[in-house]
Amino acid sequence: MCGIMGYIGHGEASGCITDGLSKLEYRGYDSAGIAVINKRGIEVRKSKGELKNLLEKLDRRPVTGSIGIGHTRWSTHGAPSDINSHPHLSKDKTFAVVHNGIIENYLEIKALLTEKGYRFISDTDTECIAHLLHYNYDGENFFETVRKTLDMLEGAYALGIICKDFPDTIIAAKKDSPLIIGLGKDENYIASDIPAILERTRDVYILDEYELAVVKADSVEIYDINGDPVNKNVFKVEWSLDAAEKGGFEHFMLKEIYEQPRIVKDLALSKLPPAEHRVNLEGISLDKSDLEKINRIYVVACGTAYHAGLLGKYFIEKIARIPVVAEVASEFIYKDPILDESTLVIAVSQSGETADTKEAVKIAKSHNAKVLAVVNAIGSSIAREANEVFYILAGPEIAVASTKAFSAQVTAMYLITCHIAMQMGKMSVLEFEEIKASLYTLPDDIEDVLEKAEEIRAVADKYYKAKNVFFIGRGADYLVSMEGSLKLKEIAYINSEAYAAGELKHGPIAMIEEETLVVAIATQQELFRNTLSNIKEVKARSAKVFGIAVDGNKDMAQECDDVVYIPVTHPMVSPLLANIVSQIFAYYMAYNLGTNIDKPRNLAKSVTVQ
Ligand code: AGP
What we know:
Layout: E1 3-8, H1 13-22, E2 31-38, E3 41-48, H2 51-60, E4 67-73, E5 88-89, E6 95-100, H3 106-115, H4 126-136, H5 142-151, E7 157-163, E8 170-175, E9 180-183, E10 188-191, E11 203-206, E12 211-215, E13 220-224, E14 235-236, H6 252-258, H7 260-271, H8 288-292, E15 296-301, H9 303-320, E16 324-328, H10 329-332, E17 343-349, H11 355-366, E18 370-375, H12 381-385, E19 388-391, H13 404-423, H14 429-450, H15 453-463, E20 468-473, H16 476-492, E21 495-500, E22 517-522, H17 528-539, E23 544-550, H18 554-559, E24 562-566, H19 574-593
Parallel strand pairs: 15-16, 15-17, 17-18, 18-19, 20-21, 20-22, 22-23, 23-24
Antiparallel strand pairs: 1-4, 1-10, 2-3, 2-4, 5-6, 6-7, 7-8, 8-12, 9-10, 9-11, 11-14, 12-13
The chain binds 2-deoxy-2-amino glucitol-6-phosphate (AGP).
C-alpha cells in the first residue's frame, strides 16, 4: 500500500512527481502529498482524498524546485486527513519523509522523542521517522543519519527522504516494501512501481532488502545497510507504454478484461510447443527427479490469487492425483504448517508484494520447503524470494480489481498441473493433447465471451439494484463462484456470497426471497443435474436466477430468468470462461451504481501490511 515517487534533476519536480503518483494511485488514494526543496527550504502541499485534490491545491499554490518526493496513501495508522498525509516533516523542517510500510516500534520511538521535547502532530507511524532523523542528525552527514535511523526502525519500509541542507540528494531505503530507482538523463527518480516512471525511462535499479540509494541528478549510488557500496545490474523494462494506459477504455478494469485473450495466447503459445507432448517451463526445476522428492503441496495466496490457487489445487488433485492444501496466506502463516524439504509451496501473487503471501514464502523457505512463485510483477519480492518463478506475463494490472491476472494465474495452474502430471506419468498423451488443444483455442473462446458484453450488460442493467446476491456452483464452478462474488463485492459494494450449490439448503437458503439474485454457474456437465436441482430450489422460493452455462444447454434457459452461454470447451477450462462473464457482469453492475470502479473504496492494489 501507498505509492512513492521522487524526482531529482534540472526540471520542475512537482509535475513529474504528480504524474508518477497518478500511475500509483492503485496503491492507495486516501490522500496525496508532495515536498520539494527550494530557496525557502522544504515546501509541502498535501490533501486528503484522491490525487486530483492535491492537483487543485497545487494549481492554487504551486511549488517550484527541482528535487522532491511525493506520496499517495492507503491509511494504516491514522485516518485519512490532511495532517496524516505524507510527506511528514521533522522538527525545524529539516527532513521530509515519504513512507510505504509499517513501523512496528513507532510507539517506543515516539515516547523516546516526546521525552526529548519533540512534538507530534499526526497519528501516523511515519512522523516518528522524520523526527528520528532530526534527532540523529549531526548537521553534516545525511547518509550516516539515515543509516543510524534505519538501525532503530523495526517493521517494513520503503522510504524517500530529503534534507533541506542537501538540495542535491534524495536518499531512498528499502526493507519489505518495494522501491525502484529510475535512471534518466541528467535526472533520476525513485518510485514504488515501474508504471510511475515508464514514460521517462526504461532503465531501473530494483532495490533489494536493506539497501539504500543515494540519488542525485547525475548519479545513483547503492549501499547496503552497513554503508558498503553495492554493485547492481540495470534492469531494462520491456513493457509498452500502452500497457500502463487506458487505451481508449473508460476504465482500466475494462481494458484489462479485454486484454485477456492476448495474455492467455502468449502464455499458451510460449509454454506449449506445438509438436511436443510437454509443457516448456523454461528454467523452472520441477522435473521428475525434483517431483519425486515432493510428498506434500501447499498453495498459498490472498484474495483473487487465492481463488486461482484453489483452481490449481482442484486441477492438480484431479489430474495429477497429488493431494494439495490450499490456504489463504494470512492463515497459513499462523498455523505452524507442516513443512520440510519434501514440501512444494506454490505462492500465487499478482503484485509479488502481498505481505501475507511474502511471509508465507519466508516461512516455507525457513523450513527448507521448495517455493514456486506464480507472479506477475517482474523482480518483485516474492519472485526474488522463491526458489522458482513462473511469470504469468500479464503486464501491469492497474485496476484494483484483478481480472487479467486471475485468468493468467489460472492458465499457469493448468500448465503447471499438466507439467507435473506428464512428468509423473499421471496423464496420457491423449489427455494432455485434449487440454493443450483447449488452451490453444482459449483465446478465441474468450473473444467469443467478450462479444457478449452487451448481453451481459443487459443482465446487469436489470439487477444492479439487488441488495443480496448468491453465487452458486459445484466443483470448479464453485471455485469461480467465489471469484465472481468477490468481484461484485469489491467494485459494486453489493452484499454477495458464494456457496457450493449443494450447501445452500444447509442454511443460506433461508435468506432467499423475492428480491434475491442467484448467479448460478453450471459449466460442469457431470454435475449439471444436481446444480439444476439447486436452481429449482431457489426458483421455488422466488429468487431471480442468472445462469452461466455452456452452449447448447437448453435446460438452463428453461429454469433461469437470464442465461449467458459460453463456448463448449474442455470442462477444466470452462470455469475460466464463466468467470469472464462474472467479471463483465460485476463491471456493469458497478458502472450502473456509479462506483469508483478502478479505485474502489477502502482497497489498495497491493496489500503490503499483514
Ligand atoms: C482482487 O480483485 C483483489 N483486489 C485482491 O483480492 C488481490 O487479489 C489480493 O490482495 C492479492 O494480491 P496479489 O495477487 O498482488 O498478491
